[in-house]
Specification:
Oligomer: heterodimer
Order of helices and strands of chain A: HHEHHEEHEHHEEHHHEHEEEEHH
CATH class of chain A: Alpha Beta
CATH architecture of chain A: 3-Layer(aba) Sandwich
Largest sheet of chain A: 9 strands, mixed
Radius of gyration of chain B: 24 Å
Number of domains of chain A: 1
Strand content of chain A: 5-15%
Shape of chain A: globular
Strand content of chain B: under 5%
Structural class of chain A: alpha/beta
Radius of gyration of chain A: 21 Å
Order of helices and strands of chain B: HHHHHHHHHHHHHEEEEHHHHHHHHHHHHH
Structural class of chain B: mainly alpha
Distance between the termini of chain B: 12 Å
Number of helices of chain A: 13
Largest sheet of chain B: 2 strands, antiparallel
Chain lengths: 407, 498
């Protein structure tokens, strides 16, 4: 990291001093990941949408004759309400996501529908727990599937485990575990003096090694993320974008992490959902910008990148009494990236007639999200099916990896 | 860190808001007695007469909304509504998040813990001629004052626990932002050393909660209003009431229980029409929106008429053994250890059941149990505790606007958690690289605000006492100056762990 040393001399701040010192950074001196020798150096990014995104409003099945009855005037794309962009004729994409639509047309976005984890109750917190732990039920593990995946990526010529990046101030469950994890969010505060930080690391190494580890990591990630476009006051879209762009910069770095998790809140649309215009439309537009910005910042490695966008569960098929939707079951997920065999919708459509709904109320889960994730992890990161079933997604032997997701 | 810190330090650090200079000595002879002395309703009460009650807060919201509307319509000389003047559009807002005026303010935002600029910009004047400002910064100022005046701060920590247990997101919208402070004072603090039953009723019936979890707009599909308006249920409040507020998600209830309970709660709303002053800003039962007929919740049929049906279910949940266990587990998790010792949970659970949910008895049982004192100091102070403790340690009174920003940076803004679940309180959540780097920035900033003549070594001795490790003492002594010394004190593991 010679450039960091130069930067440190020119502009000493806490954000560069540690990288300049070359210490404590688990991955800064890491050899390339295993695939590098074969000319591939894959990146994998998990984007978690917290709150349960309404899949029927994001990728509406406009060809399903039962949609209008369930959604009434709010059945997006089937009447006067809300614009959509065409996908395969049966499904359409919410018009708030034109950039994702472009990626779809370019063949690097795959939309998955009627998909759910193995969790069948309707608690956000348990649902997110299962989404992130990869277990068969809530509160079964203190570690996350992405962290466990990092531990079983084929070793190749690596000397240390692959590290993950949590693009948020705290470590989410999906990345908790034995593999090293960094956290990073866009910096805003003025920097403390490098000297104070050095003294603290020194103190911590004596009295509290855990403190030493986290502070060191915190100081060095800011440096790698580089100078951020502040984009202050830009609201939701700007904050979504700046998080994605910052994470993208870290991921594209030769010495940076290969796996990352980002999360966006706000999808719990119980009232005035606004899929065509309003709250959900705004969230989708912000997400659209963020995903595109991830693609742009990661352009040099985009061909070897897979981004999975997922949420803990879907929402009721019918609208509720407040023009919103309540907690449901199946929903949509996206796979994005140059490594994805995209340009299509993957779904085993269960239908929307009353007797086709799950518990008479939710879109039926006809596809297990773990199968999608297993297919992607196997074909993109080279993780064996034995590890996927035994370690990454325990007790998932009945859930077959989906073939043909990766180009 | 010292192997076993003195009880006076544990009392302040684990159960309170940290020492002010002199506190360790002041409570040294009877640390447990100092905690017990704060178990009194008066210790929870915030006595700042300038803070509005719920009705005044909602009145302000209405005035602001009407002024905005007038400005939007650009009507020349639009009259400013006087406080006594009836609202001209009483049905304008059905509940929070229901009004288009809440607009962008309604959205949750990612990357919490960063300045998000979500404070409403107000170009309006209240009826009394004052600018509305940000109600939360005034609430925070009152709480800082309250916290810095406490001997230990146990009552304050107890209140903060319950506020987080019954979490409300200010960012939901204007009505919630304006009423969450009154909610904390009138529902939480007024009952947190009373019975859990009373606390639960006060919380459930408060306009801020009814608006936040949408019960105010949940309508029985077969009620008069439901049939007339083709409106229906919103099960959000009923679900969180069971999952988060009472029996917990592991209690084994079903979707049918949630739906039935949501029907039971239909009609539980609050008055929004200023023309009906006896209801305005208060809980009331709207029989027209109530789903008629008996409902089955947790295997029991509730056939009571009207509001009594909800009263009965709520009372059942308040006294349920699963609630006792859920609350006991959360208390021990919050105050003592991320892996709550079973015997301590069992003790509190039993106390809850034996006393009919007497929260003062629960607090007494917690601080009287040896197991609550002997667990190692492995938890991390949450950002709100951290900031209040730093103010106590360095005798600081920062501007509330600045404190608000600091709390956002640290990831725990006042009354604005990411979900109804509230802020997590385990060390794994907060002991994270970016969070720690941000703490360093805040510590530096606090150290810069402190009295420049303070001797960091003396402050550290007074705040940490015998819990201070020799390495920390040495690092502070070797600091290049008082600011750096105080920053190291605030960043020391002894100051941050509890």
């Amino acid at each position: 990291m010679a450039s960091a040393v130069t930067d440190a001399m020119l502009c000493p701040s806490r954000r560069v001093f540690l990288a300049g010192a070359g210490a404590f950074v688990a991955w800064a001196s890491l050899p390339k990941a295993s695939y590098a020798a074969q000319g591939r150096d894959p990146r994998f990014v998990a984007v978690i949408l917290r709150g349960a995104m309404d899949g029927l409003a994001v990728v509406p099945p406009v060809g399903d004759p039962d949609l209008p009855a369930l959604r009434g005037d709010l059945a997006i794309g089937t009447g006067s309400y809300g614009d959509t962009l065409p996908l395969d004729g049966f499904f359409a994409l919410n018009a708030s996501m034109p950039l994702l639509h472009q990626h779809y047309k370019n063949g690097d976005a795959l939309l998955v529908h009627a998909v759910a984890t193995g969790y069948r109750d309707r608690s956000h917190f348990d649902g997110q727990d299962v989404l992130e732990s990869g277990e068969t039920g809530p509160r079964m593990s203190k570690t996350g599937w992405l962290n466990r995946a990092a531990m079983v990526i084929p070793a190749g010529d690596r000397v240390a485990p692959v590290s993950g990046l949590a693009a948020m101030p705290t470590v989410p469950l999906i990345l908790r575990g034995d593999a090293p994890t960094l956290t990073w969010t866009p910096p805003e505060l003025k920097v403390a003096s490098a000297d104070t930080a050095t003294r603290l690391i020194d103190l911590y190494s004596t009295v509290d090694p855990e403190f030493a580890k986290v502070l060191s990591a915190g100081l060095s990630t800011d440096k790698l993320a580089g100078a951020m476009d502040p984009q202050k006051g830009g609201g939701l879209a700007a904050s979504f974008r700046s998080l994605a762009a910052g994470a993208g910069k870290l991921l594209v770095d030769e010495g940076g992490p290969r796996l990352a998790a980002l999360s966006y809140d706000g999808w719990d649309t119980h009232t005035n959902e606004g899929a065509g215009e309003g709250r959900l439309a705004g969230l989708l537009a912000a997400l659209d910008g963020a995903l595109d910005s991830l693609a742009t910042t990661m352009a040099p490695v985009w061909k070897d990148t897979v981004v999975v966008v997922m949420t803990e569960f879907g929402r009721t098929a019918a609208i509720n009494g407040n023009e919103g939707t309540d907690h449901g079951t199946a929903t949509t997920a996206f796979l994005l990236g140059g490594a994805v065999k995209g340009g299509r919708v993957l779904a085993d459509w269960p239908g929307l007639k009353p007797n086709q709904l799950y518990e008479d109320r939710d879109l039926f889960p006809s596809l297990d999200l773990r199968g999608v994730l297993k297919g992607a992890l196997r074909d993109h990161l080279g993780i064996s099916e034995a590890d996927l079933t035994g370690k990454v997604f325990p007790d998932s032997i009945g859930v077959k990896p989906v073939d043909g997701l990766i180009a | 860190m010292a192997v076993s810190p003195p009880e006076s330090f544990i009392a302040l650090q684990r159960f309170g808001l940290g020492a002010r200079p002199g506190d360790l000595k002041a409570i040294a002879s009877d640390p447990r007695g100092a905690l017990l002395a704060e178990i009194s309703p008066g210790a929870l009460r915030i006595t700042d007469s300038a803070l509005p009650d719920t009705i005044a807060a909602i009145t302000d919201v209405r005035s602001i909304q009407m002024q905005r509307k007038a400005e939007k319509q650009n009507v020349q000389g639009a009259p400013v509504p006087a406080p006594s003047a009836p609202a001209s559009a009483p049905s304008m807002v059905m509940g929070d998040g229901m009004s288009s005026m809440d607009g962008g303010d309604t959205m949750a935002t990612p990357a919490r813990g960063k300045g998000q600029g979500k404070k409403p910009k107000l170009a309006v004047t209240l009826p009394d001629g004052q600018k509305p400002g940000n109600p939360l910064s005034e609430e925070l100022a009152a709480r800082l004052d309250h916290a810095t005046n406490a001997q230990v701060g146990f009552a304050e920590r107890w209140a903060m626990f319950w506020t987080n247990h019954f979490a409300i997101e200010a960012a939901t919208g204007q009505l919630v932002r304006w009423t969450v402070g009154p909610f904390d004072r009138e529902a939480i603090r007024a009952h947190a050393f009373g019975s859990f039953h009373d606390l639960l009723f006060a919380v459930t019936q408060h306009p801020a909660m009814l608006a936040y979890l949408n019960n105010a707009t949940s309508i029985g599909p077969d009620s008069k209003a439901g049939i007339r308006q083709h409106k229906g249920l919103n099960e959000n409040h009923a679900r969180e009431l069971m999952e988060l507020h009472t029996i917990g998600v592991q209690a084994g209830y079903t979707q049918a229980d949630v739906t039935s309970f949501a029907k039971v709660l239909t009609g539980w709303t609050f008055g929004q029409n200023q023309k009906q002053p006896e209801r305005f800003g208060r809980f009331f039962f709207n029989a027209n929106a109530h789903e008629p007929g008996p409902q089955t919740v947790l295997g029991h049929v509730y056939n009571q008429p009207g509001v009594q049906q909800g009263d009965a279910v709520l009372a059942m949940l308040a006294g349920h053994p699963a609630t006792a266990k859920h609350i006991a587990t959360q208390l021990v998790h919050h105050f003592v250890a991320d892996a709550p010792p079973d015997e301590l949970v069992a003790l509190l659970s039993k106390t809850f059941m034996d006393t009919g949910g007497d929260l003062a008895a629960l607090a007494t049982a917690l601080v009287s149990a040896d197991a609550a004192w002997t667990a190692p100091m492995q938890k991390l102070r949450l950002p709100q505790e951290y900031v209040l403790s730093a103010c106590r340690a360095l005798s600081l009174t920062p501007k509330p606007q600045m404190l608000m920003k600091d709390l956002e940076t640290l990831g725990q803004p006042l009354f604005d958690p990411p979900s109804p679940e509230g802020y997590h309180d385990d060390a794994a959540t907060w002991l994270a690289p970016d969070a720690m780097a941000n703490r360093l920035d805040i510590a530096q900033s606090f150290a810069q605000q402190a009295d420049s003549s303070a001797d960091a070594r003396e402050v550290a001795d007074a705040i940490l006492g015998d819990a201070q490790s020799s390495a920390t003492r040495e690092a502070i002594a070797r600091a290049e100056g008082p600011v750096q010394g105080l920053a190291i004190l605030l960043m020391s593991p002894e100051f941050q762990r509890r």
